[in-house]
Design brief:
Shape: globular
CATH class: Alpha Beta
Number of strands: 14
CATH topology: Alkaline Phosphatase, subunit A
Largest sheet: 10 strands, mixed
Structural class: alpha/beta
Radius of gyration: 24 Å
Strand content: 15-25%
Number of helices: 15
Order of helices and strands: HEHEHHEEHHHHEEHEHEHEEHHEEEEHH
CATH architecture: 3-Layer(aba) Sandwich
Number of domains: 1
């Protein structure tokens, strides 16, 4: 009798949980209902927190997309894999460049692959495409552990909507600085020519040579939609340019089909829904236009919530709800400098701001029926990198031992078995510059944050002109220490002459130095040679680039 009972329990014991990771783009900490926003309806997203655990200090490793997503995928600070930029360009701006997540990295999709999972990613990738030659797809999701991909290898941006301003002209100080530099140089050369210092041929050659880089940069930014607006299905380019209106519905359709196929095949699955909302340019399907009180951003937020709801509903209809982990987060905070940007609540700063929490503290919630308690809230610091460990543990795969994994096992914290974060120290980067660190002592309730660099804000405001630059950040002569438990808005730094400041800041500075010593030199993916697009790699649906480059995904052409 006991034998029969044990045999009957075996399927329950060995059944591997399905994993659904829902990643919003540029979603603000204060945008979601369960984080305090009662003006926009997000019932489906809120349900994940209600039926699971909400993390109030859930942190990304960067305030911009590419490095944050790199850390999420690998469980490692982006500095370890060369995904932390030494230059001002901190994201993989052009998908047809050679910049991307190195193949030597082991993603959580490669982890679940070892356990027999089928893996699909839908939406934004933003971690590269080709590496050495056109068509090698070394940085493509299908070479990083995924079996199916539908979405953007790059990102979404204002230029994808013809009604919006292009990137270069959206930053007028840069645009006019570029053109005025060219103009001043041209005038200077002309004066030299008139003074008979240069001959006509020399003058013309100087003018042409100087014009080449200026023209190149202008053409890149003034033709962004032609150079970067693509949808891929696996390796195939299926849409150019992207139809933003209705894209959420197409992503949902692809995700539902993937789950249904995996379930029919009897395979556990990893589904990554990497939404394009709330990144600009924002466009929704017609049925969501004007449904909120907050314009396009509010409409898109409610469309995002609907999209999440469709995934959750399908999980339930497939009979998988009791054996599926569902996680929701954002890659970084809301973008404060634009009209259609997010809301970060009381937090200081936003997207691209480096150390301030508004750029790196994001919504984070997870449910796992039968394992995690419903309605639990933890105020302890957690990281997007921890999902790597959680996914590996849930699928029974060992963490790689040949590299430093910075994620931690947060399952005991989420279950309530322990009350203190497994992270004693957490480090905050802007590009490849370490600018702040968190310290959670093993006793007490306070989480400290020491800030060594601050964004170069517009005087009197906590914003930059368009996006803050790591290169322009201000190095503080005396680092600022904050009690993040009582002062999450970073408004009242601890007195630097106090005993508390001296003791805590000394501990954190030592930890920062120790952390730097663990960083092995690696090849950076962010050199101008790697980041700038290779025009010979540019795709064109129905012709030869740049002519007749237009196609619509025939699966959704109606």
């Amino acid at each position: 009798m006991l034998y029969l009972l044990l045999v009957s329990l075996v399927p329950c014991v060995i059944a591997k949980p399905n994993i659904v990771l829902l990643i919003a783009d540029d979603l603000g900490y204060g945008d979601i209902g369960c984080y305090g926003n009662h003006s926009v309806k997000t019932p489906n997203i809120d349900s994940i927190a209600r039926e699971g655990v909400k993390m109030t200090q859930h942190l990304t490793t960067a305030s911009t997309c590419t490095p944050s997503r790199s850390a999420l995928m690998t469980g490692r600070y982006q500095i370890r894999s060369g995904m932390a930029a030494p230059i001002n360009m901190r994201v993989n701006t052009w998908p047809y460049s050679s910049c991307g997540l190195p193949t030597s990295e082991i993603t959580f999709a490669e982890q679940t692959k070892k356990a027999g999972y089928v893996n699909g990613i839908f939406g934004k990738w933003h971690l590269g495409l080709h590496r050495d030659t056109l068509g090698d797809f070394k940085h493509h999701p299908l070479n990083q552990g995924f079996d199916y991909f539908y979405g953007l290898t790059g990102t979404n941006i204002d230029d994808f909507d013809p009604e919006e301003k292009v990137v270069l002209k959206a930053r007028p100080y840069w645009y006019w600085e570029l053109l005025s530099t060219w103009a001043v140089t041209a005038v200077a050369l002309f004066c030299l020519f008139r003074s008979n210092y240069f001959g006509p041929f020399t003058f013309i050659m100087f003018l042409v040579i100087w014009s080449i880089p200026v023209t190149y940069v202008y053409l890149l930014f003034d033709n962004y939609i032609l150079l970067t607006s693509f949808v891929h299905r696996n390796y195939d380019l299926v849409e150019q340019p992207i139809r933003l209106a209705g894209l959420s519905q197409r992503l949902v359709s692809e995700g539902l089909e993937f789950m249904q196929n995996a379930t029919a095949a009897g395979k556990p699955f990893l589904l990554v829904m990497s939404w394009v909302h709330m990144h600009v340019s924002i466009r929704t399907a017609k049925e969501f236009e004007g449904i909120s009180k907050f314009g396009r951003y509010g409409d898109a937020l409610e469309e995002l919530d609907w999209s999440v709801g469709e995934i959750l509903k399908s999980v339930k209809e497939l009979g998988l709800e009791d054996n599926t982990i569902v996680y929701f987060t954002s890659d970084n905070g809301g973008h404060l400098e634009i009209t259609d940007g997010g809301y970060n609540g009381i937090l200081k700063g936003g997207k691209a701001h480096g150390a301030p929490d508004g750029g790196i503290r994001v919504p984070g919630m997870i449910k796992w029926p039968g394992v995690l308690q419903e309605g639990k809230v933890t105020d302890e610091p957690t990281s997007l990198m921890d999902i790597y460990n959680l996914v590996s543990s849930a699928t029974g795969v060992e963490i790689p031992s040949d590299r430093q994994i910075d994620g931690r096992d947060i399952l005991p914290l989420l279950k309530g078995d322990v009350s203190v974060s497994p992270h004693e120290f957490m480090f905050h980067y802007c590009g490849n510059r370490l600018q702040a660190a968190r310290y959670r002592p093993r006793d007490g309730k306070i989480t400290w944050k020491l800030v060594t660099h601050e964004p170069n804000y517009i005087p009197g405001k906590n914003v930059c002109l368009f996006a803050c630059s790591c290169n322009l950040d201000v190095t503080l002569a005396t680092p600022k220490l904050y009690d993040m438990t009582s002062d999450p808005g970073e408004t009242s730094p601890i007195d630097s002459s106090s005993k508390t400041y001296k003791e805590v800041s000394t501990l954190i500075l030592k930890a920062m130095n120790n952390h730097k010593n663990t960083i092995d030199p690696v090849e950076t993916q962010f050199t101008w040679r790697k980041v700038l697009p290779k025009l010979t790699w540019q795709p064109c649906c129905n012709g030869t680039f740049p002519f007749n480059c237009h196609c619509t995904d025939t699966k959704y052409s109606a």
